[in-house]
Amino acid sequence: MKHNAHRLFRSLVALLLATGWAAPILAAQSAGGHPPLSEQDQYIACDQCHAETTPELHKEWFDSRHGVAMVKCYQCHGTFETFRVTPQPQDCAACHENMMHKCPQDKPCWQCHVPHSFNKK
Amino acid sequence: MMAQTRRDFIKKTAALSAASLVGMQLPVDVNTMARAAEDEAWHRGTCRLCGVGCRVELGVKNGVPFALRGVADARTNYGYLCMKGMHFWKCMGHKDRLTKPLYRERKADPFKEISWDKALDIAAERFSSAVKAHGGNAVAYYGSGQCLTEETYLFQKIMRGGLKTNNVEGNPRLCMASAVGGYMTSFGADEPIGGYADLEKAHCFFIIGSNTAEAHPVLFRRIMRRKLDNPEVKVINADPRVSQTSRIADKHLQFKPGTDLSLLNAMAKVIIDEKLHDQQFLGNYAVFKQGKEAKAASFDEFAQFVAPYTPEAAAKTCGGTITADDIRQVARWFATSKGTVSLWCMGINQRKQGVWANNLIHNLHILTGQLMKEGADSLSLTGQPNACGGVREAGGLCHILPGHRPVEKEKMRNQVEEAWGIPLGRIPAEPGLHTMDLFTAVNKGTVKAVWINCTSPAQSLPNCDLYNKGLASDDCFIVCTDIFKTRTTEYANLILPTAFHFEKTGVYGCTERRSQLTRKAIKAPGEAKPEVWIAREWAKRLATKLNDPVIAQCVKPFDGLEEDFALPQAIWDEYTQKLTKGRDNDLRGASYAVLGRMADGVQWPAPTEEFALKGGTVKKFVKGLDPMADSESKNDLPYQFYGPAHEDRKLWIWLRPQAEPSEVPDADYPFYLSTGRIIDHWHTMSMTGRIPELLRANPYAYVEINPKDAAKLGIKPGDMVEVRSRRGVNLLPAKVYEGPIEGMVFVYWHDQEQTRMINKVTKDDYDPASKEPEFKICAVQIQRVSGPRPLTPFLV
To answer: Where does the UniProt annotation place the signal sequence (chain A) (predicted)?
Structure first.
């Protein structure tokens, strides 16, 4: 069921791209990054929706050390006004500052610490 | 709660999910990220929130804070932060900050802005008139485990030495008083023997009455890491509610609220029956006690006492999922591991039998010798960042003076009077009103003026509507010092705007006896002032109005000192050098100069600077590790229990029976209600509710209902449910969750909205010894009212 929904999304975006409908949607997102939501919807916790919308990703996070330790989505990705799909290394630095000096400087953290399981490759 | 359908929402998000799958980069707002660029300064301090004592650095650029990050070398958090620690800088420049003194003569009037001069004069006038007319016991100070130690110390000095009242209390009465009582009666001294260093050496964790994952997240990380890296380490989680903490448990013991005394006694019985107790340790260091008079008992009498608590009997009493074999298993793990650390919090403390529950955990450690060695400790988790340092250690409760001195002992009062240079006999001999009696006295009209500092009792007291009646009365003059409006400032006559964390300098002492310094890094907004300045200036006016030079004497050492650094430093120096000298919390080595050089801070006792710089005492009472164990040594034994409360210098094992909570379910009110905290919010949410990331994670309280109960009551997720007790009612959305045990519901207490304020429903009965209320257990009715409704978060 979850797997089918995932494939459905992929097909949907392919369709959107093919028909030129992607551009306006992406333009709307580029202002903040997350699809625009009503104020009411913004009061739903990230993981509540993402357990359904991105279930594999959610499970990966939930089972990871971040998930067990309750490091939540918004700590890396921000909230709506500050949303970023791809956090910067400086976001990781809030907790992992010491690794900024120990780890290679020429690549972002997640190249080795793959989201959302964060296991070192 | 969703107002649009899930289907609509999912359609909208499809494109975004797909975008990230095909690797598209979307523009990013960098304004709120932690940057390591030039022109930035990082200022070291302690987190403003819970009792872990994470060390943080505040990033400031051009006088404006922009981020927080952890300090990697700090022995509390090793660089990690939870979301509250990451985001609390957003309170600093918040538009809702109180910036000017506000006053109204009657509580129905609107507030008017006034000058500091007028405000301090009014505060002094109202307190001094009350004292003149009715004596010192007509006024009170109600402080907080979130005040800096310097603030608590100075206020209590003014109240006791100046206004001659021991009506000095604080909100740790509501959370830690039972832990204090437990430590004092079991070990003879307050606060843990060990500390966090034991976590990485432990082989067994017994987590009871604590949702560590949410209430002490950065400590939980250390336990989680220990467990994940060492799978043979055992984690036992005992809680009527399955929580996020349970995820790492090898065994989760789910029992009916209030039956844990049976569980703990049953574990003791197994330990004795299977000869898992440490006879040598018991022989050298322990005695047995029973009853109010602390009558001596023998090992055999203790064994007889716990004999009825067979695992079978206890499993029956506890109900839930516990079996007799579970009890045997966890008792064996506890006793036989190379090092066992117990951790607990409000599930044990906020109980009618709170002190007893604490004693029974300590019993297990004493019986098995799971103390003193690396990886073994009986570690009460402190909820607030400075309940230990400020309130418990520096005289912030009605019955204790600074330096763990009981106020009832004349010798102790005289020591304090001499240190303060005030006449002997000045400090009243009787303890003041404890918190619940204090607010009862406000209700009765016998307390005429209260100073409420950095806390919101209008929301945080149990059965809060009852006490709000008194707070609302014009018979009681109320001063609130705070940074934001709260449910309590709604009852104030005078609101004084205060400097926030990093806007002033001072010390916090955390769970593991570690005092840590935060220096002022940015300016407070508007006319907000640090509390130490406010208290000093108030006291000078009190001295004039009451024509009492002794009041002036209380603040004379601090007169004229610059308020950002010199004033708090002078207060800290007086407290540590004069009041902790020779006491079990000796902090003479922990000067600002020493603290300022450290990544973290100093665990007392630390009588010298040299010792303090290394970090202080990792394990109390151990020769070679604790300088006082050496200096107070009476014999050749390696452990010396010199704590002030046990003249026999022994650890006490207590004979404590199972006893019922104050109110249990019955035919009319058939559910248990338990309350607690969740990770994204802090207390009454005046800070965290103003941070969008945190508010959106949990915008309103809900009622957690077990799926079986929900099915019986026809309650679906999101339905509006009435939670009603004999005292009050809430209307909350339902969260159907395999969390609370069947027959129990759970609600968090952060919500300021009147219909979701769960303390209207809780019961205000309290432990007769510690006076700490039983927030954790009362009886309620649960009834579905309607389907989901759109809800709005609320802040005063």
So the answer is: 1-27
